Amino acid sequence: MSPERMTDAEMRALVTALGKIVGPANVLDREAGRQRIIGDMSWLTISAAAAGNQLSRQDAVATVATTEQVADILRLANALKVPVTPFGGGSGVQGAANADRGGVLLSLRGMNRIRSIDERSLTCVVECGCIVSELEAELNTRGLTFTHYPASAEWATVGGSLAARGSGVLSTRYGNIQDHILSIELVLPNGSVVTTPRVPKHGVGPELTQLLIGSEGTLGVITAITIKLRKLPAARLFSTFTFPTLSAGIEAGRQIMTQNLRPSVMRLYDKKAAMHSLERAVQMDLRDVTMVMMFDGDFTSVAQAERDEAQRICQALGGSDLGPKPGAIWWEKRYVFYHPPFAPKLPEIWCTMDVVADYAHIEKVYDRVTQAMEDAVDPKWNLSLVTHLSHWYDWGSMIYPRFKIPVGPTDHREALELHDKIVHDATMAALEAGAVINDHHGVGMRLAPYMKDQFGSAGMSALRAIKQALDPNNIMCPGKLALEAE
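Predicted structure:
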């Protein structure tokens, strides 16, 4: 059966077969399925749907409630050679969750149970479709926290966070999503169920869990995850500094991280971002490079000591202390700009590029990427660009440039060309300056064309060999991550 040319009769037969697995009420046919789910939250998806050219072209939507149902559907799809695209909260911004080759869109929101909480080991087994904010709220009632706080927490699922190798605002202390995971339950394309070792990095052989995190549904369906928990912190202490230059702010961040201080939040805004983004959140006039920090932990005295040392570093580099209040306000309002009236909407064109580099290259990456984005389009389009560095590591950091064109071309193809030109120029500038093309948003449809530039021919051959071994019929998200043979 060829899903790109699936006949109505084939589609109806597929819907019937899916209904026998999950119940007819949990299956939508092609028309209803495309109306219900247009795809993820990327500009690519939203603009295409508005132009009548929906990117997610599923022939059926099946909502599952158990691992066994997932396994049965993958066995069916494998036998029919029908594509399967896992779909969680749909909060992605790269187009990864779009069923652009047709077939089955596998809705995982029905798998939303917390299977167990171990308050002695501070671990939790949670199903893939659990919304991050709902999980966090339940844990908080027990005095516990997940510490994975993505901006999309009210939409994103735990499984989706793993699929895109996501991050959250607390990553500088607690790590990206892969650092929160002990084990996963995965259904392979042939329907086999694999549970990786109970704890990571201690079994013999390769680390299978980390291979699967970030695979964006191309190697199977993650159905349950064992995550690490922490106690809710006893203290959250804030600091805010302005710097005379971005270089001084980056150096402050570098010294803080390489001297083993660990703020849970450290966000460095360039002048434009401070003036046009941060100042709206903290409700104060900002005209200089600005850093917001938060230190937390089980012991207030330890958090206070770390904050004091970080403040001394900032002051030694010319930083001016604005006190804790702006940081505290930012924390309380950190999600406000993802909702109306601040969230972007058509006819705007928007995108966030997140590229990461070590400290030897990060400032050059900032200069080259932001300049490339500003130069990519004619000034008549009034492109605005704000950039901050929000995820820091002991070896480097990332830049987060967000561009917006207030009103793009009325013709969608022309608007797409404009969008793609900015993404292309920014991505090539990042690679040439020594960066990696993605920090935590995933690859999806937007960055798939640049996988070979990142990994090289030999690297892509290795990745394709893994895909071929696990998914010989290429049913899982075909075309994604550029894993099809050239």
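Summary: The domain at 235-337 is CATH 3.30.70.3450 (Alpha-Beta Plaits).
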